[in-house]
Amino acid sequence: MKKKKMGTLFTPPMMISAIILAVILLISIFGTLLAPYDPEAIDLANTYKKFSPDHWFGTDAMGRDMFSRMLCGAHTTILNAVLVVLFADFIGVPLGLMCGYKEGLLDKIVMRIWDILAAFPPLILAMVFVAIFGKGELNAVLATGIVFIPMISRLTRSSVLSEKTKTYVETAKSLGYTERKIIFRHIFPNVVPTLMAEFTLDIGYAIISLASLSYMGLGVQSPKSDWGSILQSGMALLFKSPTVALIPGIAIVITVVALNLLTDSIQMYLDPVQRRLPHIMKYKKREAKHNEKYA
Amino acid sequence: MKNMHDNIVEINNLEVEIISPDGLLKAVRGLSLNVRRGETHGIVGESGCGKSVMVKSIMRLHDESKVAYSGNIFVNNKNIMDLKIRNMRKLRGKEMAMIFQNPMTSLSPIMTVGEQILEVLTAKSNISKDEAKKRSLEILEKVGITPGERRYKQYPFELSGGLLQRVMIAMSMVNNPELLIADEPTTALDVTIQAQILDLMKSVQKSTGVSIIFITHDLGVIAEMCDRVSIMYAGKIVESGNILDIFDHPAHPYTKALFESKPKGSDRAERMLTIPGAPPSLYDDIPGCSFALRCKYACPKCHSTSPKKIELDKEHWASCHFSREFFEKKELLHDE
Amino acid sequence: MSKKILDVKHLKKYYPVSKKSFLHAVDDVSFSIFQGEIFGIVGESGSGKSTIGRSILNLIAIDKGEIYWDGTRIDSLDAKGMLEFRKKMQMVFQNPLASFNPKQYIGSAFSELCKFYKISRHEMNEKIIKLLELINLPADVLTRMPSQLSGGQLQRLSIARSLLLEPDFIVADEPVSALDVSVQAQILNLILDLRDKMGLTILFISHDLNVVERICDRVAVMYLGVIVEMAKKEQLFSHTMHPYTHALIEVNPIEHPSLRKDREIIAGDIPSAVDVGEGCRFAGRCQYCKKGLCDCVTPELIEVESGHWVACHCPF
Question: What contacts A42, CB < 8 A, 6 or more positions away?
Answer without folding.
Answer: A62, A63, A64
